[in-house]
Write the structure tokens for this entry.
Amino acid sequence: MHGMNGERTLMRIHIGERDRDPASGKPLYEAIVLLLRERHFAGATVTRAIMGFGASARMRTDRVEILSLDLPIVVEAVDTEERIQEVLPALDAMIGGGLITLEKVRVITYRSAPPA
């Protein structure tokens, strides 16, 4: 995708590591990234957190004494506001519990690495 520089929208999707896509049974974070790739988004990144809690107030952590097998996951993607608005209904159908946030960002550089 060219012309990514300038004002764009950052979408953050907060879910759990054990969450599954109801349609495919795949891990939800994987299904979300595949959907964004199918829709030709500029990119997506999945980050696994070491601690957090959400609407249920249930603590999720990697600390051994209270180890959770359902660590927080954040999927981030940057694209135009219009493209993100278009994908939100599909994401809403996939996500049981979680949080989606949007914020304006200014893209300074977006390019692939030079060939090795």
About this structure: The chain is about 20% helix and 30% strand. The chain has a mean pLDDT of 88. Helices lie at 28-38, 81-94. Residues 6-107 form a domain with the Alpha-Beta Plaits fold (CATH 3.30.70.120).
